[in-house]
Amino acid sequence: MSVHASPTLFMAMAAKEAAGAHPDGVTLSASLGLTGGALRVPGRGDMWARAVRLGLRAPLGGFRAFTAKADAQGSGRVTAEVIEHLERLALVDFGSQEAVARLEKAIAFADRLRQVDTDGVEPMESVLEDRCLYLRSDNVVEGNCAEELLQNSHRVVEEYFVAPPGNIPLPKLDEQESFPHN
Amino acid sequence: MAVPTLRCGFSGSRWTFALVDRGCRHRTVATFNWIRGQSSVAQQPLHTAQKPRKGAQEWAAVVGLEIHAQISSNSKLFSGAEVRFAAPPNSLVSFFDASLPGTLPVLNRRCVEAAVMTGLALNCHINQKSLFDRKHYFYADLPAGYQITQQRLPIAVNGNLAYSICVGKQQREITKTVRVKQIQLEQDSGKSLHDDLRSQTLVDLNRAEGQLRVDANVSVHHPGEPLGVRTEVKNLNSIRFLAKAIDYEIQRQISELENGGEILNETRSFDYKLGCTVPMRDKEGKQDYRFMPEPNLPPLLLYDSTSLPAGADPQQVIDIDRIRETLPELPSETRARLVQQYGMLPEHSFTLLNEVGLLEFFQNVIKETRAEPKKVVSWVLNTFLGYLKQQNLAVSESPVPPSALAELLDLLHTRAISSAAAKQVFEELWKSPGKPPAQIVSEKQLGLLQDREALEELCRATLDGHPQVVRDVKGGNPRAINKLIGLVRKATQGRAEPALIKQILEKQLSSPAP
């Protein structure tokens, strides 16, 4: 999984700030049309920090675990501790500082959604909510392909997949710079 | 691949759930509290401490059970692979079960029906809309890296289960209720075989064995204060060990807290040999499952007779009311019916239902005998069940069929044999299955002496043969007559009822000697 997001809304907000408008007044529609890229807002460092701080309170794709930690920092940055936690949870590789910065932008981008007034609006649980969930009859129609499936395994013992004895713990952040890919 | 597991409170001395196949699972959560009192100490410490004074304050334990039960179905919850016990490894695995890219889950209708049925049987509110979620964690037997479950909105919530336990010296039967928090459909993980010798794990994705598994969540707190930190105890596969593990864990937490320690939110395992809980490997620290909605499954919608859409394909809609109609008579109804119909004690009804096949056996005997129901109950629950337990047999393995016991009880009912003789016949029935009771009675000459005169003669002869005992009886020793009765019984080879013997002897003793 790679963390990827164009900070479109973020730029919009930053741009509006530069023009003096209050960030809460920015609507989503105003931000459309702007493309992503490296964001540079000269001379507005404190506004940047505030915007990112707002962003840090937003859940990243629904994962809520680390926001409390990030909030506690107050600096608007995602700490090394949080990065390490994320890497263990999702087995992603934030190999560089640029990747972490991109993550911070993505968080702030998603955070823009909080400024939308959703009072009285039912949350959407699924983009498939208008679809029917198909119910399958309880018949046996597949299976019996052990040989085929086992070909995917690096090691096999008597029709069993072979795995290490337990989860192999990742090395600590200070022990290693780059992380092994499983 | 997903097996509905059912979470519920338990009653009786064995699992009453009897499911066969793997593949589907739903999970229900039940919680119940109890208060553990501590004796108060006479002296109070001089300083006022924030921590509870040792031994002075009550502790309350909160226990939540997570029960995973498999649904009896032909295929898995999300794939069309077969659900079968003891198949060659990885032979019942579809591409989806192996988490190959591009595969999608397809929900099994039968599993949904089973989950609804279970919810109804446990007095739950059935959610007409329920949602599927992904629960992420890494382990070799979970190839997708997540498990599809129902965390946000499960299929059934807020149920209850009544059960009965015996308390006190008199073994008083009391009824208790346990709350069922929720029932959810979820996938099962694969099976891991740990090969410590070669330092590897062998994975079989047919899906885990064990039709019923329980995890216990335990925490303690002082009444009135917030709930304490909970620990989860896994690896429990019998009610006895479940009870031991919970008791141990409650004590451990109380001791730890009273000594100023703290409880970690961790997963522990139960060591059967030592009878204690120990922290589990690979489970240190709180797990972060990163729940997210399952993007490949729309919400599961259920209907009832009022909301059923017109002209809907019956294969594609599930009617809760229709399912309710197909529910069999629930145990509590059966027990009430037995008590009312046969006048048996409530605890007898529990025993009849808690033993697989026993109720059917009892009902078959009742059908074929003219003996009183109370007699049948006594013989089935005491004698018959006693023999089964002694030889560790199930009802289905009994050498004595219901018809044989019915015949025996008829002989007893018509006073053709004494109750002592009946016990002998039963023993013989057990040893020589197929032999009719009447034949045993005649072979062993166990039939009651029908000739009253012959019995009176025997009594007279016994009295004549034991003048000393006769003198004891006439001298006022009440127990001496029992000796005479015993002698007559021996002489009749158990073919006379003691009560009748006593009656005749007393008559003969009171009449003047010739």
TrEMBL record, chain A:
Swiss-Prot/TrEMBL catalytic activity: L-glutamyl-tRNA(Gln) + L-glutamine + ATP + H2O = L-glutaminyl-tRNA(Gln) + L-glutamate + ADP + phosphate + H(+)
The UniProt record lists the keyword Protein biosynthesis: yes
Alphabetical GO biological process terms: glutaminyl-tRNAGln biosynthesis via transamidation; mitochondrial translation; regulation of translational fidelity
Pfam families per UniProt: GatC
Subcellular location: Mitochondrion
Major location category of this protein: mitochondrion
Matching InterPro entries: Asp/Glu-ADT_sf_sub_c, GatC
GO molecular function, one term: ATP binding
EC number, as in UniProt: 6.3.5.-
GO cellular component, one term: mitochondrion
Entry keywords, A to Z: ATP-binding, Ligase, Mitochondrion, Nucleotide-binding, Protein biosynthesis
Subunit and partners: Subunit of the heterotrimeric GatCAB amidotransferase (AdT) complex, composed of A (QRSL1), B (GATB) and C (GATC) subunits.
Known role: Allows the formation of correctly charged Gln-tRNA(Gln) through the transamidation of misacylated Glu-tRNA(Gln) in the mitochondria. The reaction takes place in the presence of glutamine and ATP through an activated gamma-phospho-Glu-tRNA(Gln).
Family: Belongs to the GatC family.
Protein name per UniProt: Glutamyl-tRNA(Gln) amidotransferase subunit C, mitochondrial
Species for this entry: Oryctolagus cuniculus
From TrEMBL, chain B:
General function of this protein: Allows the formation of correctly charged Gln-tRNA(Gln) through the transamidation of misacylated Glu-tRNA(Gln) in the mitochondria. The reaction takes place in the presence of glutamine and ATP through an activated gamma-phospho-Glu-tRNA(Gln).
Classification of source organism: Eukaryota, Metazoa, Chordata, Craniata, Vertebrata
Main EC class the enzyme belongs to: ligase
Major localization listed first in the record, in broad terms: mitochondrion
Ranges where the Asn/Gln amidotransferase domain occurs: 360-509
Any one cellular-component term (Gene Ontology): glutamyl-tRNA(Gln) amidotransferase complex
Organism from which the protein derives: Oryctolagus cuniculus
SMART domains assigned: GatB_Yqey
Family in the record: Belongs to the GatB/GatE family. GatB subfamily.
UniProt protein name: Glutamyl-tRNA(Gln) amidotransferase subunit B, mitochondrial
Gene3D superfamilies per record: 1.10.10.410
Membrane spanning stretches: none
Family annotation (InterPro entries): Asn/Gln-tRNA_amidoTrfase_suB/E, Asn/Gln-tRNA_Trfase_suB/E_cat, Asn/Gln_amidotransferase, Asn/Gln_tRNA_amidoTrase-B-like, GatB, GatB_Yqey_C_2, Gln_synth/guanido_kin_cat_dom
